[in-house]
Amino acid sequence: MDTQQLLLLALKVAILGTVFGYGLKATIDDLMHLVRRPLLLLRSVLSVLVIMPVLTVVMVKILDLRTATEATLVALAISPVPPLLPNKETKAGGHASYALGLLIVMALVAIVVIPFAIEILTRIFDRPLAVSPGAIARIVFMMIVAPLAAGMAVRAFLPGVAARLLKPIRLASTAILVVAALVLMVGTWGAIWHALGGGTALALAAFVFFGLAVGHLLGGPEREHSTVLALSTASRHPAIALSIAAVNFPNEQFVGVILLYLLIATLVCIPYIAWQRRRSLLAA
User: Whole-structure pTM over 0.90, yes or no?
Assistant: First the structure.
């Protein structure tokens, strides 16, 4: 196992630990928060899986971008919410139950929606595209459903153990994630730098900005909901996006573009998160 594989393994462990931590404090009511609000559910699906993909396809059609950039943008647009996002959304003043419920709903819906979206994109771009529903389902199950269910099981049957485990698991997962992500970024800086040209950085920044705007507007008047939906529309699952892009364009290099997206998304979201935090403090 080389250094990069070791770092990727560390990132997976950190993500699994984080999602397991969600389960240690989650309840069935948290998971049902979104399902019990059908209008919010409809707006959420429209924002993440309808409006954002349409805007992305229009942007890709208008701009003269590299193939790797176009494929990454479209793959991101049809990918679900990343498993680390609820922590960021809650810290920004978002509704914790909505953030967790949206993560689960979008992950499960993606298993059905992504193959359907690929069929539509095949017609739009007039080229054969494909995706394995089984591959998407495996990622969703292994990285989201299984660790969340395991954490909830511990909470249900061993609540005292769950309470004691929550803080150390959260701290350990965060530490592993930060260290592994920084080392990976430094080690792949050449690929990130190569991805910068051809308008890629601006296109990725536009993707994140439009996602924040669309999600914020469709989130409704409640600040806690608009915060979550804005960040969820702008932030997508990098592993699923990479899987979709790599299968359909095997001769292209996507790692640099995906990492650049993660870096740009972090930077573009900082002012929005700071603004929502101020609103949350003023409201309190």
Answer: yes
User: Per the structure block, which two tokens stand in for 143?
Assistant: 């990285």
How many structural domains are present in the chain?
1
Which structural domain, as residue segments, surrounds residue 96? 3-277
List the alpha helices (DSSP H) in the chain. 3-25, 28-32, 38-46, 52-62, 67-77, 85-91, 96-125, 133-140, 146-157, 159-187, 189-195, 200-218, 223-234, 238-248, 255-283
Between 21-30, 51-60, 228-237, the lowest mean confidence (pLDDT) is in: 21-30
Sequence letter at residue 74: V
Quote the CA–CA distance of 21 and 30 in Å, as a whole number. 14
* H/E run at residue 236: none
- First-to-last C-alpha distance (Å) of the chain: 50
Residue 163 lies in a domain: yes
CATH code of the domain covering residue 92: 1.20.1530.20
Tokens of 178: 């930060």
pLDDT at position 274 over 90: yes
Residue 250: per-residue pLDDT: 87
User: Whole-angstrom Cα distance, residue 182 to residue 166?
Assistant: 24
Q: Is residue 61 part of a domain?
A: yes
71: CB partners within 8 A, 6+ apart: 245, 248, 249, 252, 254
Please indicate, yes or no, if residue 93 is contained in any of the structural domains: yes
The total of other beta-carbon atoms located within 10 Å of residue 98's CB is 26
Classify residue 75: in a domain, yes or no: yes
